[in-house]
# Entry
Amino acid sequence: MPVFRCLTLIALTLTGFTAPEIFAQDTIPLVPDCSTADTTTADNPGYAQLICSNSEWVESVRDIKSQGDALAAQLPDDWQSAFTAHQLAFPQFVNNCPAGTAARASCIERVLAQRLTDIADLAAYYDADMPTCTSGELTIADSGLGDAGMSKSTEVYTLTYTGDASCRLLGYPAITATDSNGVTQWTVPVYSTTGSYITFAGPPLPVTLSASNAQAWFAVSVSSGCDPASGSPGYTVAVAPPLSADAITSLPFPDATCDAITVSPIGMLSMREAAIY
# Structure
């Protein structure tokens, strides 16, 4: 069994994720029934209303479902449930598209196109012999997404590949937390599919990055609501690729006072908006 599939099996075990858990959740149909969707409602339209208002978007989600169904039948058993969870969670992305008509339309078109690209890349490369992306080939930037409140916050970051050949990322970014006294706190990092204001649907799947599909994402959640507060509030978090000690960059969290910093898995770009609530 390839190493990257072994790592996914570990992720399935660590997260306690099983297939029945996916279907126990309330889900929105990926392909809405447009014969019953009221597309005239202007206030806070839902997924079905938005998709059904544009025939091209309807065709796009049909393609996402049909190509996704075909891919799921090909994936190894240990990845099928994870991919199904991603597909079921995908419609939630519209909740994070801007409210303005033009901006919302641009967001929907971008995410739908990205989902088709991500599915095609996963189908082409999930079992390919491919190198792991290295720190020197990656940059990290704040995506501007995330949420905060009740002394908790989540920042969502974009990973961008700057190399020429394709490479793969699978699992969690490796993080090292250093407190304001410059002391590394080895027990502070927490690796989880769930953080403040974010839920990563299922275990991670391999993400293939290339010049034509160069971005992925991850999230970091921190808190300042601990009692008692940390003896050394504020952390700097060095972020490296999975299973690497070579940091890409360091991220400051000066307001973090709790001794836990939660990092999500690395995900396909098309699932980024769907993970935030």
